[in-house]
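Propose amino acids for all 130 sites.
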């Protein structure tokens, strides 16, 4: 499965948020690598826990910048839906059978689509991105 690779096409014009997106990309890549290496369930669980807590931290930093945007609440709803989804993985107690490739495909496509389509558009509207 293809790993996420950050490049300037993902930039939202704020170094702090770009750095957080890079960290999220690398956390998801670690999960994918760990899964394909067939690491033990405990390591996978820790990676999922770390991802969930970092996602919370990241979304709240991002939302602080986006409050003035007219689509602020629908943006937050997208964040909330994603958080709910990854919590399902946590509840499933990740193991070799519950974390299937489609789970990773979802994480990869959601994050890259969201950053490209939603974050960039909203940060641009607020003047952070040319
Ligand atoms: Fe976002």
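Proposal:
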């Amino acid at each position: 499965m293809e790993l996420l690779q950050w490049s300037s096409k993902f930039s939202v014009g704020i170094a702090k948020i770009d750095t957080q997106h890079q960290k999220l990309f690398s956390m998801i890549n670690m999960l994918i690598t760990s899964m394909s290496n067939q690491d033990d369930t405990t390591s996978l669980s820790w990676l999922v826990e770390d991802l969930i807590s970092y996602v919370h931290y990241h979304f709240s930093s991002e939302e602080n910048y986006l409050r003035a945007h007219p689509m602020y609440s629908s943006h937050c709803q997208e964040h909330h839906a994603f958080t709910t989804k990854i919590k399902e993985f946590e509840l499933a107690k990740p193991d070799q059978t519950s974390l299937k490739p489609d789970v990773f495909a979802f994480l990869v496509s959601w994050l890259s689509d969201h950053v490209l389509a939603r974050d960039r558009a909203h940060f641009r509207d607020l003047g952070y991105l040319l």
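The pocket of fe (ii) ion is lined by residues 62, 75, 79, 114, 118-119 (CB under 6 Å). The chain has one domain: 17-125.
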